[in-house]
Amino acid sequence: MKILVTVKEVATVEDEFEIEGTEIADQYLGADLNEWDDYAIEEAVQLQEDGIADEVVTVTIGPEDCEQTVRQALAKGADRAVRVWDDALEDVDLLDVNAKTEILSAVIEAEDPDLVLSGVQAGDDSFGATGVSVAENLGFQWGAVVNHLEHDLENGLASVRRELEGGVEELTDIELPAVLTIQTGINEPRYASLRGIRQAQQKPLDVQTLADIGVDESAIETELELTDMYEPESESDATFWEGSPDETASELGELLRDKGVAQ
Amino acid sequence: MTDVLAVADHRRGELRDVSYESITAGRQLADETGGDLHIAVISGTVDDFADKLNRDGVDAIHTVSHGEEFNHDVYSQAITQLYDELAPQYVLTPNSVNGLDYAPAIANELDLPVVTDTIDLDNDGETLVATREMYGGKVETTTELEGDAVITIRGAEWPAAEGTGDATIEAFDADIDEDAIGSTVNGFEEVGGGDVDISEADLLVSVGRGIEEEENLDLIRDLADALGATLSSSRPIVDNGWLPKNRQVGQSGKVVTPDVYIAIGISGAVQHVAGMKGSDTIVAINTDPNAPIMDIADYAIVDDLFDVVPELIDEFDG
Fold first, then answer.
1. Can the peptide bond before residue B94 be classed as cis, meaning omega within 30 degrees of 0?
2. With an 8 Å Cβ cutoff, is B19 touching chain A?
3. Tell me, what CATH number does A185's domain have?
4. Could you tell me the pLDDT band of residue A93, with boundaries at 50, 70 and 90?
5. φ and ψ of A66, to 5 deg
6. A7 lies in some domain
7. For burial by CB atoms within 10 Å, which of A96, A130, B58, B263 has the most?
8. How many CA atoms lie within 13 A of B20 on its CB side?
9. Which of residues 94-123 of B touch A (CB under 8 A)?
10. Where does the Electron transfer flavoprotein alpha/beta-subunit N-terminal domain start and stop, copy by copy (chain A) (predicted)?
């Protein structure tokens, strides 16, 4: 079977930063593979190693700069990558769920995978909606927030556990083809080996424009407008103990003794 | 007029709190223009649920009796049909694990924009202003949109609706296509049992990402031993396999209310805070004075845990 994994390079922010308009100033931003996608990649690669998946393909929406992140997925074992980018995407402030759905759906239709793995959410904008939206759009089945996937997919069924709130898991069977959104903790993502990193440089990474995948530019127009960004006001009314570590530790020690929870 | 259709959340026979909170959020939105607030309650003991949901501010409750537990295909079909029938401007769903399993699908099906995980909503009759967080809570943003939308709301951001309402309660005869149901829920399992119940502890020493490496956990174990405390953690520690699931505090783990909760190297993501904000006294040890954990801490030490914790161990062992 063939597995497609959606991979996003997310922006990371330093502890101290400044906001310019509706964006965080460039100098405070870093870039990383989305944490949830790392688990999705690992799950796909494990299915490949178990002989269940024949091919693992990643798909990314992003500019050339994010190829280093895409190569991380290839270094961990994905076979090849598709990256969609277009001049029309350069100036978009907010690529909303519907726009991502149109783009990813077009690639998935062309690739025709049996299973699509997507991170539950992205660490930057945290919409948590694209995977399920894509599934509905394609007529695929889906499951959101999956933290366990049984390796018995040959029968056209994914047996999963969905991580509900409060330490409860839902045991669900989902027909293929399906999109599963993958929760952190489902596996232990590997570090890429040196050999993997070398091999990744040779693996195919196809770059496609909106026209290449047959998506009209009007599909990426959004009805959402990001109008403000600000640091939340600190609501802290904590007592900040100051001083050297032995001074602050003894303040805490005194509190614990006062409360009668430690002697 | 801004009519709102809010969808209730329930599991294993119990309505979840966010169902009552979405009444408050939905009422606020509908009030801006004198619209109606409709509640949909789907599957399970819907008549019993409808009685409980009949609180101040609800105009109409629509029950869809089909199956016992949540199934996203049943929800999607019922809600899109209710949307066609009622023509609300906003469909409001909880930003729960189940909410995220159908809200994006109905948005796609109805060709509506979707805004998830909102923490505040404002509406002047034309424009909706949705407040959300980005970058793990480091910033808040406002997103504006006009027209119909699907919106998910974060739990515990709105107060629960109270009182007794005088809503009409009607069974909605949804036409559920069984052939379109592609997933089957086979059951539930409680996880996180085992040797220790962290929700019973009076003093919790809780460790997060700031510990950096698995071998550093020994330092926190030593502290727990010195204090006679119980060891717990935030999600990443369990995700990494460094501690078992029964040690996890938070939305997907345990809710704890100890006398004292010491958060060590825990930034305080909203999912974590949901599990420990009821603690009597919260102490945070963190290098970042702006970490969200500081918002709910009663006492804080802004310093390196690797400097402070050994001193604290000495304080009790020495």
1. no
2. no
3. 3.40.50.620
4. confident
5. -85, 5
6. yes
7. B263
8. 19
9. 95-98, 100-105, 107-109, 113-117
10. 21-217
